[in-house]
Design a protein that fits this description.
Length: about 750
DNA sequence: GGGGGTAAGTTG
DNA sequence: AACTTACCCCCT
């Protein structure tokens, strides 16, 4: 008797099922259909082993393999999933759900047949397959436990309603002039079904009424037919990339400097060589915009398939199949492309490798470049990372580095201490006026959306806080409401200060996109001022066409295609982007500032940075006459400090978050956990905190957190073994390799 | 006793 | 994640 381990895309470890007696097991990594909570679901087989004797009694039988020939994902997908689960202290099913992107969530056709006639299914002959969906769960269970049935399942083809012919030729339609159009349309339809009556009319060049007549007379009807293959469109090829200037080594390496398209140009020879030799490189990008842009640049240069969450289910099926069958093709995608099977695996290339948008914010909380690197190691594929500058983590990777010159920009730093006007200083106002006079474009970046960071009373300083979270409510002027950016609570603006009841509340703290937009409209009447942020997502078509105007935006602007005529980019509040408590904040800000030229097709836009801290090391790097040298010193200093504090890449971190509705319960649980860890042998310097969460109360739950700091991955695993799952009102979540807000400032 | 809510336990 | 059971509060 054999037992199969089956991993479902649910937050659970693999579960064992018996391989039905007398059936051949399919491959590890193949999809299997298993009974689950009265129904049937698709899981991934992660292992096959002899079943223990007593298992035969308590385990249930799986139904069948859906992939009898070969694994559904890449050959290394199963070991990778299991390894990531262990390292991240999360169920393997969570990792699967996070990476499979719905590939296992297909409807199944589930059928059964009786071994011999049974009173449980009167009137059903033995050996006849019938749909299991019509049976009650208890009935099915009874038949199974009595050993009376065989079962089978198959992925239900996706069906679409299409217009099909009901006859095999045009005979009977009539041959007069009055029916000529109908004959033409039917002849067309006989070649294959049409999407609709209108589509058929268009394709065969007849009026829709002729098609309607065919349907009315019964020669054609709408039927649920298998969906035709959905082939996603590639973007039109952009202008060719410039010639490469560097020699790429044979093994793993990393590429820094330049602009995105320049880095891609350096990687192109590698892609050409591999596809020319029949290999399949995998290129991963963090965001859809980068995917679109990269696809356009590669489309004319190499055979290309793209895969992302933006595709329809049908299109994803098509790309998954094509990627598995087509050697000599580049697979370019966002993170769901990581697991896809390729026939002749080539290099694994991660673009924008240090971007925080790689970090999954829920579920498995994976940092995808790390997972991609592990996949490359397991599959013995070359790993390549590219980014705008060498962060401490890239510097410590040990891979040979190739460096391109840094992107050009002119930088002007405005010291806001003692500035005369707010939120736009005189320097910025002057340049904005020039932008209007010269009919150019400007991008003005705010560190938050909405009108202002808070509404406050001028008299007593009182602000209005969220009832669910420990945050001030943000003021949104366009809807004249206060909104919590954490839990989406929203309320009307109070008429008077809730504290003193005297004065009306006024906008205070950091200016948001709405405030800046209002200010610039006043400043530049008759000049178009657009806004782009989470509240206003519409792409500014006029600006993308190159028409003059101002774009006020959050950093979401980096998710727009480059604007053609930008001569000014302003960061209105540098300090607002550098959150304390995140030891990577400096590096992240540097990444952002170095990437600002990507907002435009112009070569050297003027960048104005307004700040209360003009001496910040990040700004000093950019102002230096030897930027490359300053950047290298910055990275070296960062590495030294990380080593001194045991932060990545010198050490490994995990954030343990404890939350409870009761304020004391969360805090006590966190303190107790610290005690537990120390008793279990953790050194005091390995357990930081507990401290209240970055937002001390979220959606009505108080949050406390501990930061575990270990010398290496193995030690971190040992520490995490002492972390219990939640109990009695306390929820515990673990985030290994946290990104974003850490615990301590650097 | 039961509706409405939340929390905890289970799934093979 | 989806589903079931347990429990509490409040109400009639």
């Amino acid at each position: 008797m054999l037992a199969a381990e089956v991993l479902l895309p649910l937050p659970l470890p693999p579960f064992s099922f018996l391989v039905p007696h007398g059936t051949e097991p399919g491959p590890v990594g193949g999809r299997v259909a298993v009974p689950w909570q009265g129904s049937v679901r698709i899981g991934l087989c992660t292992g096959i082993s002899p079943a223990r004797l007593d298992d035969g009694l308590k385990l249930r039988e799986l139904i069948c393999w859906l992939d009898p020939e070969q694994p559904f994902f890449a050959a290394e997908a199963v070991p990778l999933l299991l390894e990531l689960a262990t390292a991240g202290k999360i169920p393997a099913g969570t990792v699967l759900a996070g990476l499979a992107a719905g590939a296992l969530q297909r409807e199944l056709d589930h059928e059964l047949s009786l071994h011999e006639p049974s009173a449980l299914l009167p009137g059903v002959d033995a050996g006849v397959w019938l749909d299991a969906a019509g049976l009650e769960t208890e009935q099915l269970e009874q038949l199974r436990s009595d050993g009376l049935i065989s079962e089978r399942a198959s992925v239900r083809p996706r069906l679409v309603r299409r217009l099909a012919a009901t006859v095999s030729d045009t005979a009977g339609v009539g041959d007069g002039a009055r029916t000529a159009n109908q004959v033409t349309a039917l002849a067309h339809l006989l070649a294959g079904p049409a999407d609709s009556a209108a589509a058929l009319a268009r394709a065969s060049g007849v009026p829709v009424s002729a098609v309607r007549a065919l349907i009315k007379k019964g020669f054609a009807e709408y039927r649920d037919l298998e969906a035709p293959p959905a082939v996603p469109e590639l973007p039109a090829a952009a202008e060719p990339l410039p010639a490469p200037v560097l020699d790429v080594p044979a093994g793993p390496f990393q590429l820094t400097g330049g602009r995105r398209r320049i880095r891609l140009a350096e990687l192109l020879p590698l892609l050409r060589a591999e596809t020319g030799a029949g290999l399949n490189p995998l290129v991963l990008v963090p965001e859809q915009v980068v995917l679109t842009e990269t696809a356009a640049l590669l489309a004319g240069a190499v055979p290309l398939l793209t895969f992302s969450g933006d595709l329809s289910d049908d299109e994803r099926d098509w790309v998954r199949d094509s990627a598995a069958e087509t050697p000599g093709t580049v697979l370019l995608g966002t993170y769901p492309a990581l697991l896809l099977r390729q026939p002749a695996p080539g290099s694994v290339i991660v673009l924008e490798a240090e971007s925080d948008s790689w970090k999954q914010l829920s579920g498995a909380r994976l940092f995808i470049p790390r997972a991609a690197e592990r996949l490359a190691e397991l599959a013995e594929r070359r790993f390549v990372a590219a980014d705008v500058f060498e962060t401490a983590e890239l510097a410590a990777s040990g891979r040979p580095g190739l460096q391109l010159p840094l992107p050009e920009q002119r930088l002007h730093v405005t010291d806001l201490n003692g500035a005369s006007s707010w939120p736009l200083d005189a320097d910025l106002i002057r340049v904005l006026r020039q932008v209007r006079e010269r009919d150019r474009q400007a991008v003005i970046l705010a560190s938050r959306r909405g009108f202002s960071g808070a509404l406050a009373c001028l008299d007593c300083g009182e602000t209005v806080g969220c009832p669910n979270c420990d945050l001030p409510l943000r003021y949104h002027q366009t809807e004249n409401r206060l909104r919590c950016h954490q839990c989406h609570h929203s309320e009307a603006v109070p008429g008077a200060c809730p504290g003193c009841g005297e004065h009306a509340l006024e906008p205070r703290r950091t200016a948001g996109t709405e405030w800046l937009q209002e200010r610039i409209i006043k400043l530049l009447p008759d000049f178009p001022v657009h806004r782009f942020d989470a509240d206003s997502r519409e792409q500014p078509a006029e600006l993308l066409r190159g028409e003059p105007g101002v774009l006020v935006a959050t950093v979401a602007a980096t998710r727009l295609p480059p604007l053609p005529a930008v001569s000014l980019i302003a960061v209105t509040m540098f300090d607002g982007h550098v959150s304390m408590g995140d030891f990577r904040a400096g590096e992240n800000m540097l990444r952002l500032l170095l990437a600002l030229p990507e907002l435009t097709e112009q070569e050297r836009p003027l960048v104005i940075v307004q700040t209360f801290r003009p001496d910040d090391p990040v700004l000093e790097v950019l102002r230096s006459s030897d930027r490359q040298g300053a950047l290298e010193r910055f990275t070296a200093r960062t590495l030294e400090r990380r080593e001194a504090f045991g932060y990545p890449p010198a050490g490994r971190l995990a954030r343990v978050e404890l939350s409870a509705r009761d304020r004391l319960a969360a805090r006590r649980a966190a303190e107790r956990l610290r005690g537990t860890l120390l008793t279990a042998g953790a050194a005091p310097e390995e357990v930081l905190g507990p401290v209240p969460g970055g937002v001390a109360r979220v959606r009505g739950r108080y949050v406390w957190q501990l930061l575990l700091r270990a010398a290496g991955a193995d030690r971190l695993e040992v520490l995490l073994d002492s972390v219990p799952s939640g109990s009695s009102g306390v929820r515990v979540t673990v985030d290994v390799d946290p990104r974003g807000a850490g615990l301590l400032p650097d």
